[in-house]
Amino acid sequence: MSAEPSERYNPREMEPHWQEVWDKAGAFVTKEDNARERYYVLEMFPYPSGRIHMGHVRNYAMGDVLARFERSRGKNVLHPMGWDAFGLPAENAAKQGNVHPAEWTYQNIANMRAQLKSMGLSLDWSREFATCDVEYYTQQQKLFLDMLEKGLVSRRKSKVNWDPVDNTVLANEQVIDGRGWRSGALVEQRELDQWAFKISDFAEDLLAELDNLPQWPEKVRTMQRNWIGRSEGLRVLFEIAPNDKTSETVLDIFTTRPDTLYGASFMALSADHPLTTALAAKDPGMAEFVAECHRLGTATEIIEKAEKKGYFTGIHVKHPVIEDIVLPIYVANFVLMDYGTGAIFGCPAHDQRDFDFARAYGLPIIPVVLPEDKQAGTFMTEFAESDEAYTGPGRLFNSGPLDGMDVDTAKNTMATTLENRTVGGKPQGARKVNYRLRDWGISRQRYWGCPIPVIHCDNCGIVPVPSDDLPVKLPDDVSFDKPGNPLDHHPDWKHVACPECGQTARRETDTMDTFVDSSWYFARFTAPRATTPTVPDVADAWLPVDQYIGGIEHAILHLLYSRFFARAMRETGHMQVKEPFKGMFTQGMVTHETYKAEDGNWMLPSDIIIESSGGTRVARDANSGSPVVIGPYEKMSKSKKNVVDPDEIVKTYGADTARWFMLSDSPPERDVEWSESGIEGASRFVQRVWRLVNEAKVRIDAGSERLGDKASALALTRAVHKTTANVETELAGLRFNRAVAMIYELTNVIGKFMSDLKDEPCLSEISALRLAINNLVQLFAPMMPHLAETCWQALGNSGLVCDAPWPEVDQAYLVEDSVTLPVQMNGKKRGEITVPAGASEAEIIKQALSLDVVVRMLDGKEPKKVIVVPNRIVNVVA
RNA sequence: GCGGGCGUGGCGGAAUUGGUAGACGCGCCAGACUCAAAAUCUGGUUCUGGAAACAGAGUGUCGGUUCGAUUCCGACCGCCCGCACCA
Q1: What are phi and psi of A716, to 5 degrees?
Q2: Tell me, what's the pLDDT at A172?
Q3: If pLDDT is split at 50, 70 and 90, which confidence band does A82 have?
Q4: Nearest CA to the C1' of B14 belongs to which residue?
Q5: What is the CA radius of gyration of chain A?
Q6: Whether residue A343 has pLDDT greater than 70
Q7: Is a pLDDT exceeding 70 seen at residue A542?
């Protein structure tokens, strides 16, 4: 099959053809026994919602360009695809449509696979898997058991974020502004037995290694750093003054400012602190205050506005470094139980929250840090009138032995002092590094997830499922008509004999958070059919992923969990690599104009007609003709109906056109604006290239017998080599938009060359044209692979362009033998001169000064100075 | 509040280490081809003045360094994103 010259290029015919050719040739099946350098490119695998969207098209187009490009550069490329297939939508579909989650999911996968195949991606489909495949989650259960054995999994009663709409637990990372990330429901706090991965064991390493990921966006690294939230400080034991309300004798607090201890004026406990709970049991007023704190919730708006409130416990602690001073203990609504020890000391002068609290309750405010440029007296006076705590640097004062020290020295000195004292037989102070990062709770009360392979036995406690008994398979016969977890109310699934004592026991009915599934799939792709989670040697050979591409929305959750999993898999012997992704790229979103009808309803782009006259665009309803308001570009979303269906685009314009458009114009990390005229422009280029190739073919076939070296032929050859070198650099750096621009430029150059070509060209012109047109095809081949194959064949090349090596760049052609230099007068361009490449400075100056405009402006005077930057510029200073 | 990023024509965006601002695309204007339209091709398109040659201004604002600044420095203005009572 081949397209006739002079016909329009027909992607609908050619694209399926080449897809079949690649498929039959097994062109993109990755071989292990391949001596070439390995290159692993991976795009975040999709959730099988049923249809791909333009965001997928952009993501996979980028990955595919890299895969094809690196392949042509001689690498052994791994470019796999799979499905992040567990999750709640399948269960919701089951509830609504009476379809089994498995059926729904696999049907969606089939649809989306067909859509992805129509894009012509160079994927190794032989490695495809879905995380809901038994073969995959069996291996995940093995990993879980290995991690359990290594002490990387914990089970404890803990406060969890409970989503009352989805009826399940959420990880902290899945709570956004106090609401569930999927349901948007206000999250409640509940106490449950939970399985958790001990990600906090790796906090330090996860933080430190961020510095060794130079190919990650700075933004993502910063976000992870903040999330891990390391802070160095001191645990301090405060002695509780003897009293009759509690039997406790010490209060354990965490502070990062031990230097300000001389400014302490109160202590504050979290509403959930054990001491609070004990005291509230006997104090109804306090119990009411605690309840009030819980009602406040965690929503951002509320926290921002909430006043600092407290409740005095009636007890005091002794000041650790000032004799005969006691400090009152409050329960305060701004102290968090899950950070530090859930208790703090308050130094109002140097912490804004403490300041506000002290103001509200009439507590002393004692400044102990003096800004470097202030006198103690004036600072005290100014400070008394201020509403702000001073949190900057300075020297200690009002602080006895610390007076005169800078903040860091004072911190250290105080730490050492307290380390050397004891309270109740323990050191009063202990240096401690605290992290915000908390363990990753993975228990979910759901059916469509990976079962947690443990058994609860009344005699033996928690018993791991023996590996011979794996997999713990999900039962097929489940009902979704009752609220709660279908696994829990399944008639017999959970009832099993204890593997240890044989007595009646219960299976764990919780399944794993679906983020577990996506935390190691990149490793599984290296040996997707192995009967172990990985084949360690193979995983180590491929990993880390050279280039990972996906959305910024996974900057914390997925990427942090994956980094943890790599470490956990290392500890359990499944691989050596601890950083899973060497290069990370976060691509921007696809946006589209929004359209609103007169009645205020959003309208689909396909339901409107846009007319433009004299630069103004007017939209109206395609059916009724009534006017439609054109709104700004926003992220494509179903709710605003500003979506374009990739299937329709592929049918109308072809995959190559869609890919080309997605890669041109906008830098890949920025949002791209989808527009009708944009896709039309891309389509125009496809046809233009096709015409150009056919015209070139006619000229080349006609040949020539005239000898001769034409300057235009040399210029074209230079342009080809230069563009090849530049496109290579840009593609390697993922600057697809710049590569596209250069290819356009070269196309223009070739077009110009052809229209200038005489009826009887000489040999040098024909061979320059042959090189140019073939190279052009190769340059755009990673982006528009079908068109490239068609052109490649039409030009009479043998084999597939996807197998052809990247064109060679001859450095000799990159060196120009004459240069055009701009000539500036006082920094403003006035003209230009052309000089031989090796021209001396004196020559250049002489030529520049003889320019008409320079002579005129100098008006007979000598220039003050002439600056010559070789190969760049000449500047005449008058 | 803290952290990260960004401000360039009508629009998306280009501009190596400071060296011709506006590549390339979209849009628009004019012309060619056509009975006509579509498609295609050619030319033009930062702004102001001018028929043109040309001159002046110009990369958010103000200032600085420099022969020369979109690029470096300082102050400000505006926008986007992330985090946020983390002691």
Answers
A1: -65, -45
A2: 67
A3: very high
A4: A738
A5: 35
A6: yes
A7: yes
Nucleotide nearest to A876 (CA to C1'): B67
Average pLDDT score over residue span A215-225: 89
Of the listed ranges A72-81, A306-315, A562-571, the one predicted with least confidence: A306-315
| A400-457 tens-digit pLDDT | 999 999 898 999 999 999 999 998 889 999 999 989 898 898 998 889 999 999 999 9
In whole angstroms, B42 C1' to A685 CA is 18
Residue with tokens 């999994």: A153
Q: Which two tokens stand for residue A102?
A: 């498995």
pLDDT at A382: 82
First to last CA, chain A: 68
Distance measured from the CA of protein residue A830 to the C1' of nucleotide B17, in angstroms = 25
Stated in angstroms, how far is A815 CA from B9 C1'?
33
Closest CA to A360 of A338, A322, A332: A332
d(CA A412, CA A284) in angstroms, rounded, equals: 42
CA of A868 and C1' of B66: distance in angstroms? Answer: 15
Token pair of A391, please? 């949190």
Residue A731 contacts residue A739 (beta carbons within 8 Å): yes
Structural element, H or E, at residue A619: strand A616-621
Q: How deeply is A7 buried, as exposed, middle or buried, from its count of CB atoms within 10 A (0-12, 13-18, 19+)?
A: exposed
- Say how far A553 CA is from B46 C1', in Å: 38
Interaxial angle between packed helices A763-780 and A711-732, expressed in degrees from 0 to 180 and rounded to the nearest 10? 10
Q: Which two tokens stand for residue A563?
A: 């980094």
The token duo for A823 is 């000539």
**Minimum CA–C1' distance nucleotide for A688:** B40
Bridge partners for A388 per DSSP? none
Please count the CA atoms within 13 angstroms of the CA of A437 that sit on its side-chain side. Answer: 28
Is the distance from CB of A343 to CB of A267 less than 8 angstroms?
yes
Mark the nucleotides of strand B covered by protein, meaning any atom under 7 Å from a CB. 3-5, 11-15, 17, 19-21, 23-29, 39-42, 55-56, 67-69, 81-87
Band (A301; pLDDT cuts 50, 70, 90): very low
Q: Which residue minimizes Cα–C1' distance to B84?
A: A300
Q: Average pLDDT, whole number, for chain A?
A: 90
User: Closest nucleotide (CA of A307 to C1')?
Assistant: B85
How much is the pLDDT for A651? 93
A555, closest nucleotide (Cα–C1'): B82
Residue nearest to nucleotide B55 (CA to C1'): A830
More confidently predicted of A78 and A832: A78
Please answer whether residues A522 and A42 qualify as being in contact, where contact means their C-beta atoms are separated by less than 8 angstroms: yes
Find which nucleotide's C1' atom is closest to A260's CA: B87
Is pLDDT above 80 for A169?
Answer: no
Contacts of A623 (CB under 8 A, 6+ apart): A607
Contact indicator for A661, A681 with CB cutoff of 8 Å: yes
Give the C-alpha separation, A95 to A138, whole Å: 26
* CA of residue A673 to C1' of nucleotide B2, angstroms: 32
Average pLDDT over residues A36-60: 95
* pLDDT, mean of residues A844-871: 83
Distance of alpha carbon A856 from the chain centroid? 58
A434: nearest nucleotide, CA–C1' criterion? B86
Distance from residue A829 (CA) to nucleotide B44 (C1'), in Å?
Answer: 23
Query: Whole-prediction pTM value?
Result: 0.92
Whether pLDDT at A837 is above 90: no
Q: How many angstroms separate the CA of A729 from the C1' of B8?
A: 24
Region A638-662 average pLDDT: 92
Tell me, in Å, how far CA of A221 is from C1' of B35? Answer: 66
3-state secondary structure of A825: strand
Residue A3 pLDDT > 50 = no
Which amino acid residue lies closest to nucleotide B23, measuring CA to C1'? Answer: A741
Q: What are A860's two structure tokens?
A: 């007979």
| pLDDT class of A877 with cuts at 50, 70, 90 | confident
